[in-house]
């Protein structure tokens, strides 16, 4: 710049603002969604000016727009800049207000279930379709005539034409068929995507196919699938946009250059969550409730039909848990919310190998010991997460440096040290985390090492239920983690003698679609093993949208007969794995997502009252859990505040024996 008079402070480049008409003109960057309240941030930059020998003041400023539309500026720092040298501008700032609450989205006159994609059946040839890049599009015949399974259950009954698009002469992986859908999407609305896809001959190994949405040159993932042959396969996913875009393109991409790419039956439509919730309520009643008959005896010769019964459920015994950390249990407000609203816990990092043995031979079990004691004190059951972590980036350096024999010895010591120390204290263990996404131990110790870990863990603590645990299995967004891949992995381990007793789905999900989640659960259910959501969180800046996302996941999971527990990956702001996933803010105020969680917990309690019939029987339908039973006879009341229904079977009669206190 300036014919070489201005050179970078370091490196090869610097940003400059020229042609400035106002003092406030300069360089800016949008950092929406990247900041947390109550955290101090420091800003450091090297600055200078050009064309003013006397120097000038340069400021760093944060522009903030609140959810209610109010704008204000926060001054961060300033420096008197020079045109002869670079000077440091430095300052700090702190955000106190809640920037992520937002207003409830206004969704009016939405055509739920209606396909956004024009000419999906190709009855008009290639109209509305365009090649992305220099590839060539053509139409062929011979694709499936049925809709992709994930959308077949929501009212779509059209028969497909059997026509499909072929993208050939693909010179880059991103080339494929595309369609402009600008002005067809509604903000904050969740869209499901589904299609049949296939690749042509000549592929060298499995191919990854991706449905992508280009929103103002920003890539959004609409779904991934790994295609291993020339057969048609379903690809499905979901997405949502939060800001009004100027241009939106949807396209298919992924396979190696030179490999033909085909698509048929492409559907993209807004999801009617309210209608889905209504059906899930009916399903939940069938899956989670049981019929109960209470039989009352005659009292002093009086007909038991005079008995009035009032039943109130105090607690639902279904496992609802949360991730906690050692620092959380020092926060009295955190503890109060946790013990009132959860009955299971998992530790965020305190049980992981890199935490308990960060350096070889230097152990740290103090945090885990204290957290186990905390959970025991409050009657909270615990999951052990995790014994090993298969992803290399999560393995501490000293373990990575070990030769094969030393690594095997270290693995055995880890198993014995952890499981014998905590024998009987953890009801579950995630034995080797994320085996679909990593191969550290398998690459170094052989194919049987995963099964060995399970076998040894079971020997050391037979009482613990042993889980596989992985992410992205339930939402269609990850080609490495389909339900089919998870099933094949479990079957292989079982064949090797691994005593797998549970399926862990982490559940770090965005824009969830109930039909996609349940389709995955249905597939996994064929294994006959209990399924738990082990690390559930949903991430949305608008807390009303977040609340709805959370309701989707909780309702789908609770309504599915194979799901036996749900554990959230935290609930407290500043203690979350993902931004904008908390239910309670840093001051202890419950946000819309937290209110939705509590409302569902209340919905899943059973209450009933009325008179016994002429046979002295009172019937009701209820969830498993702890009940208060109040019985009123003509002479007096009897209250039993601790009546526990654990395993209720259909049609069973519970006989209540009369005593003097009833008469």
TrEMBL record:
Entry-linked Pfam families = CBM_4_9, Glyco_hydro_10
Q: Which PROSITE patterns match?
A: GH10_1, GH10_2
Which residues are in the GH10 domain? 304-600
Q: Which InterPro entries match?
A: CenC_carb-bd, Galactose-bd-like_sf, GH, GH10, GH10_AS, GH10_dom
Alphabetical UniProt keywords: Carbohydrate metabolism, Glycosidase, Hydrolase, Polysaccharide degradation, Repeat, Xylan degradation
> Which GO molecular function terms does the record list?
endo-1,4-beta-xylanase activity
Identify which residues the record assigns to the active site: 535 (nucleophile)
List this protein's GO terms for biological process: xylan catabolic process
Q: Which SUPFAM superfamilies match?
A: (Trans)glycosidases, Galactose-binding domain-like
Q: Which family does it belong to?
A: Belongs to the glycosyl hydrolase 10 (cellulase F) family.
Record's protein name: GH10 domain-containing protein
- Protein's organism: Vanilla planifolia (Vanilla)
């Amino acid at each position: 710049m300036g014919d070489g008079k201005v050179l970078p402070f370091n490196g090869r480049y610097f940003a400059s603002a020229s042609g400035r008409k106002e003092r406030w003109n300069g360089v800016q960057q949008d950092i929406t969604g990247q900041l947390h309240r109550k955290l101090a941030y420091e800003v450091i930059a090297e600055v200078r000016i050009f064309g003013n020998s006397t120097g000038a003041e340069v400021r760093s400023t944060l522009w903030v727009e609140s959810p209610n539309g109010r704008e204000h500026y926060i001054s961060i720092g300033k420096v008197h800049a020079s045109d002869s040298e670079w000077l440091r501008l430095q300052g700090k700032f702190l955000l106190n207000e809640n920037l992520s609450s937002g207003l409830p989205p206004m969704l009016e006159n939405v055509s739920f279930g209606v396909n956004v994609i024009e000419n999906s059946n190709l009855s008009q040839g290639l109209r509305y379709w365009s090649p992305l890049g220099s590839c060539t599009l053509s139409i062929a015949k011979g694709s499936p005539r049925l809709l992709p399974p994930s959308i077949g259950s929501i009212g779509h009954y059209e028969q497909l034409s059997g026509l499909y698009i072929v993208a050939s002469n693909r010179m880059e992986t991103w080339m494929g068929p595309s369609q402009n859908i600008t002005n067809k999407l509604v903000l904050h609305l969740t869209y499901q995507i589904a299609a049949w896809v296939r690749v042509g001959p000549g592929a060298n190994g499995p191919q990854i196919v991706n449905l992508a949405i280009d929103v103002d040159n920003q890539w959004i993932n609409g779904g991934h699938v790994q295609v291993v042959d020339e057969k048609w396969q379903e690809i499905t996913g979901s997405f949502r946009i939060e800001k009004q875009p100027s241009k939106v393109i949807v396209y298919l991409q992924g396979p190696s250059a030179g490999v033909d790419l085909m698509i048929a039956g492409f559907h993209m439509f807004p999801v009617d969550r309210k209608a889905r919730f209504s059906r899930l309520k009916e399903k939940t009643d069938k899956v989670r409730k049981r019929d109960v008959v209470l039989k009352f005896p005659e009292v002093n010769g009086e007909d038991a039909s005079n008995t009035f019964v009032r039943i109130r459920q105090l607690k639902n015994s279904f496992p609802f848990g949360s991730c906690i950390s050692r620092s959380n249990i020092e926060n009295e407000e955190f503890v109060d919310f946790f013990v009132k609203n959860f009955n299971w816990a998992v530790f965020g990092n305190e049980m992981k190998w890199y935490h308990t043995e960060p350096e070889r031979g230097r152990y740290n079990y103090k945090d885990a010991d204290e957290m186990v004691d905390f959970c025991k004190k409050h009657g909270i059951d615990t999951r052990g997460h995790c014994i090993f972590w298969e992803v290399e980036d999560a393995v501490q350096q000293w373990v990575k440096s070990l030769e094969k024999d030393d690594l095997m010895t270290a693995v055995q010591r880890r198993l014995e040290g952890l499981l014998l120390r905590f024998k009987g204290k953890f009801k579950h263990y995630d034995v080797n985390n994320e085996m679909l996404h990593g191969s550290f131990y398998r690459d170094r110790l052989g194919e049987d090492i995963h099964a060995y870990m399970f076998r040894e863990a079971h020997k050391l603590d037979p009482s613990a239920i042993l889980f596989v645990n992985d992410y992205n299995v339930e939402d269609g967004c990850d080609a490495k983690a389909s339900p089919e891949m998870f099933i094949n992995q479990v079957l292989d381990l079982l064949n090797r003698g691994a005593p797998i007793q549970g399926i862990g789905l982490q559940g770090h999900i965005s824009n969830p679609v109930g039909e996609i989640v349940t389709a995955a659960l249905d597939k996994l259910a064929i294994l006959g093993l209990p399924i738990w959501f082990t690390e559930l969180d949903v991430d949305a800046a608008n807390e009303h949208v977040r609340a709805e996302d959370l309701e989707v996941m909780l309702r789908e999971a609770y309504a599915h007969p194979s799901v036996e527990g749900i554990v959230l990956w935290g609930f407290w702001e500043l203690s979350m794995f993902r931004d904008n996933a908390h239910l309670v803010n840093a001051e202890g105020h419950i946000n819309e997502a937290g209110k939705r969680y509590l409302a569902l917990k209340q919905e899943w309690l059973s209450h009933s009252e009325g008179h016994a019939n002429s046979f002295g029987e009172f019937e009701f339908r209820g969830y498993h859990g702890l009940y208060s039973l109040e019985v009123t006879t003509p002479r007096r009341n009897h209250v039993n505040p601790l009546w526990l229904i654990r395993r209720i079977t259909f049609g069973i009669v519970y006989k209540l024996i009369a005593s003097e206190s009833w008469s």
